[in-house]
């Protein structure tokens, strides 16, 4: 991994405690569906990629699974260990998934929650397949910010991004879930995996001004802004929420769960690629 992505994926570690405080977990139905689709049971062996401070790790441990979590950031890993302290079956390893040595065929589930996009696309599917037992599942959870909630705020806030963040495309507008493509060619490998089963969950969260600003300061693109731009952006958004929206905004999320089974030696192979 090189360049901007390699830098951005390290930014969360400096704000580990804030990340833990303000980043949401996952809808209960998502965890239940993951358990069913991956046929998890007590003692199932789970490898979690990029666990953060344990947003999914703890619900997985509650299902009785044994979780090995590989987390790039040492501070994030420390908070995840603290959050999972009641579950001796959780082990958090500090390192990059691409580099950490892992046994072959050792896991029933490999799962990445809002983290697979940070893993090197050249190796993430092949390494996941290698560590899964045949018939085991890879689950990828993605989080999208979609249209809804305090709609007008998200229209009005755009001018602050255009002023302070050079990476913001002009005129950007949030899209509804229907406009988010269902197909994910980057998660397809017909030799290694069967087609994905997709589930989608829409939900909302309400934030006070200070909670919303803290949330923004856990996103890699906001964290990577030079201090003067970050300060300008944050103070503009603070004033917008306080003066025009009564100190509260609601954000609408789309959580996507894709579960992809590793082919077994007996699976029907595709005839052509
Ligand atoms: C957006 S956060 C998601 C954290 C958590 N899973 C959640 O649901 O909130 C992405 C996480 O992936 C971790 N990460 C990024 N690249 C990684 C890599 N190559 N190997 C392991 N973890 C990585 C980051 O440190 C961060 O904790």
UniProtKB/TrEMBL annotation:
Keyword Methyltransferase: yes
Domain of life (superkingdom): Bacteria
Protein family (similarity comment): Belongs to the methyltransferase superfamily.
Transferase among keywords: yes
Protein name: Class I SAM-dependent methyltransferase
Domain Ribosomal RNA adenine methylase transferase N-terminal: 30-145
GO molecular function, one term: methyltransferase activity
Pfam families, alphabetized: Methyltransf_11
Listed GO biological process terms: methylation
Keywords per UniProt: Methyltransferase, S-adenosyl-L-methionine, Transferase
CDD domains, sorted: AdoMet_MTases
SUPFAM superfamilies attached to this UniProt entry: S-adenosyl-L-methionine-dependent methyltransferases
InterPro entries per record: Diverse_substrate_MTase, Methyltransf_11, rRNA_Ade_methylase_Trfase_N, SAM-dependent_MTases_sf
Lineage start: Bacteria, Bacillati, Actinomycetota, Actinomycetes, Pseudonocardiales
């Amino acid at each position: 991994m090189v360049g901007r992505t390699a830098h951005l994926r390290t930014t969360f570690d400096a704000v580990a405690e804030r990340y833990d405080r303000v980043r949401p977990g996952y809808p209960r139905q998502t965890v239940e569906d993951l358990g069913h689709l991956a046929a998890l049971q007590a003692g199932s062996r789970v490898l979690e990629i990029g666990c953060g401070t344990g947003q999914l790790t703890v619900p997985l441990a509650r299902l009785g699974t044994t979780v090995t979590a590989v987390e790039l950031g040492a501070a994030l890993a420390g908070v995840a260990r603290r959050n999972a302290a009641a579950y001796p079956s959780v082990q958090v390893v500090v390192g990059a998934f691409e580099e950490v040595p892992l046994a072959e065929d050792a896991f029933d589930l490999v799962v990445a929650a809002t983290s697979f996009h940070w893993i090197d696309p050249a190796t993430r599917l092949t390494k996941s397949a290698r560590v899964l037992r045949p018939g085991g599942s890879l689950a990828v959870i993605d989080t999208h910010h979609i249209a809804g909630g305090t709609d007008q705020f998200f229209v009005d806030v755009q001018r602050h991004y255009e002023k302070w963040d050079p990476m913001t495309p002009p005129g950007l507008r949030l899209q509804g879930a229907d406009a988010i493509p269902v197909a994910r060619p980057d998660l397809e490998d017909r030799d290694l995996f069967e087609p994905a089963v997709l589930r989608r969950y829409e939900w909302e969260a309400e934030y006070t001004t200070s909670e919303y600003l803290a949330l923004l300061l856990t996103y890699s693109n906001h964290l990577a802004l030079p201090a003067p731009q970050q300060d300008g952006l944050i103070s503009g958004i603070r004033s917008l929420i306080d003066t025009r929206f009564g100190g509260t905004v609601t954000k609408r999320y789309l959580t996507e769960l894709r579960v992809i089974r590793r082919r077994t030696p007996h699976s029907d192979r595709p005839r052509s690629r």
